[in-house]
Amino acid sequence: GGRPRYEVVRELGAEEGRWFYREDRKTWKPFIGYDSLRIELAFRALGPEPREGEAAVEPVCVRSGLYEVDVANAECYPVYWNQTEKIPVMRGQWFIDGTWQPLEEEESNLIEQEHLNRFRGQQLQESFDMEVSKPVDGKEAIHSLKLSRNHVDWHSVDEVYLYSDATTSKIARTVTQKLGFSKASSSGTRLHRGYVEEATLEDKPPQTSHIVFVVHGIGQKMDQGRIIKNTAMMRDTARKIEEKYFSNLATHVEFLPVEWRSKLTLDGDTVDSITPDKVRGLRDMLNSSAMDIMYYTSPLYRDELVKGLQQELNRLYTLFCSRNPEFEEKGGKVSIVSHSLGCVITYDIMTGWNPVRLYQQLLQKEDEELEDSWMSYEEQRLLEELYITKQRLRDIEERLQGLKASTVSKAPVLKFKVENFFCMGSPLAVFLALRGIRPGNSGSQDHILPRTICNRLLNIFHPTDPVAYRLEPLILKHYSNISPVQIHWYNTANPLPYEHMKPSFLNPAKEPTSVTDGESASTVPSPTTSPVMVRRHYGESITNIGKASILGAASIGKGLGGMLFSRFGRSTTATSQTPESGKDGAEGDDKKATTVGTPPFSHSSSGFLEPTLELEHRIDFELREGLVESRYWSAVTSHTAYWSSLDIALFLLTFMYKHDQDDTDKSNLDAI
């Protein structure tokens, strides 16, 4: 698109140029207008040569507040994490036709200076909109400028071409092509003065309404920058999803990496010193990754790991709020996405769980057992004395704690309430099971994570991830026989909201019984009697033929039909469906349902699943397997495949934007 041009040649306005940054030695990327304009104003305030003793120009906050630009040193650096590699920034004035990549600053400055010296005050001949790259063969240059490897010819005020003087050099031609020159070096490359679009302060990033702390798991010692790269992948993926599905909202979700491992000393180099030299590479890899689990189960180092993560979370939150004072005022929310062992440590920080508490419970149990057993008078007298002494000791400890609180380490506390806690590839369920947590008789998340601490717990995993475990069967035992909720593909048209997806059994009955449409419609919907929901209704794929053996949904021999009808439906809560939707669903599904089976777990005398035995909210969510995917290869790669998944990005944003969407569109109150 074109932009209005000044009719007379004069110095470029602050809005006409554009600043760029370059990451990972790739091509130059333009800053958005809001950022570019503010960098340019800071650059102009700096002047050509800053005098000694003069106050340095304040760094300019860019890229949604994640980075700052040091204009004097032409560098960009992150605010919330450390990065060894600096990001260079560049002021663009002259640009290559077609690609709009900027010319290197040194050459650009020389061309700009020459252009102003020769053409200042002259009329421009044509408007920017009508500019077309015309051949200039045979047209004489009215002015020329020699550069180190190139020369620039002005055929008119508006027609400026860059020619390479090293046409015989193959290397020079390759470099020229890589720079994005659209034509062969012999015919020259058209240059444009000023960027394709003007920078405006309106071209501004949306306000952050929700921050997500991304917590890494094991292996960070091996590659310290990995969580920063992984978070960047997740952020970029989320941006694409935001643009596609949430562009109507005036706010956005920001992802911040939490790197808690590198600052810890732990055992120093003791483990390295006791590691044998044979297959050293493999041993070092295990020491840098799996060793973190051993550190965490060690009473000596566990607190250091917990404290490291807790302090980093609080530091990031405090820093973010100090730079965005309106965040808390406007009710900004915080969620945590944790991976692998990071889920366990985050959980322990939120709940304040400590192995010492487990030990105290064990001692208490032993005391109770001792009191119940038969003993002599002397034993009884000594036991009473011991009890009085322990009580006195506890009183002294409490008084001491009151006087000198710093000597006793308190349970770690976060400075913010956690809205959503997303676990990815999480072994948390195994840790909880080994701590003695057993299924209860209530379908509440409070059984493992109180809602007062965290509003919603969601456990995401790839079906072949060997490190991931399910959490739902720890709340209600029979959920081990109910399949996890399938995460929608990001490009599924009109997906069914997750809250309305019906629980479906992993194992169909061995001897299904026929039910007619009339019988099915006349009964109360329940897993036993309600019509079977054909899974493709909510985006299920044919790939489940491949999953059938692992899920036990149906043997391949019984064919696709047996598998498709192996899922039983029920609304998430007794009142979650409106009468209309319930009626429509029943009628629509009845036409397709042919058989229903008996669920393989306990029922009430009426034959229905007890409503109290259903979870308030589903917790386990499973990624869909790809169409062409080796299950054994997936087991190797799936544990780290979460970061760039568009499906996961949409899933996260769906839950984080839930309230914003409800406010924006009242007609979607029952959505997601």
Automatic annotation (TrEMBL):
Domain of life: Eukaryota
Residue ranges, compositional bias (Low complexity): 522-531
Ranges for domain DDHD: 414-658
CC terms in the record's Gene Ontology section: cytoplasm
GO MF term (any one): phospholipase activity
Composition skew (Polar residues), residue ranges: 571-580, 595-607
Family annotation (InterPro entries): DDHD_dom (IPR004177), PA-PLA1 (IPR058055), WWE_C20G8.02 (IPR057826)
UniProt biased composition (Basic and acidic residues): 581-593
Signal peptide (residue range): none
Protein name: DDHD1 Phospholipase
Span list, region Disordered: 508-531, 571-607
Family according to the record: Belongs to the PA-PLA1 family.
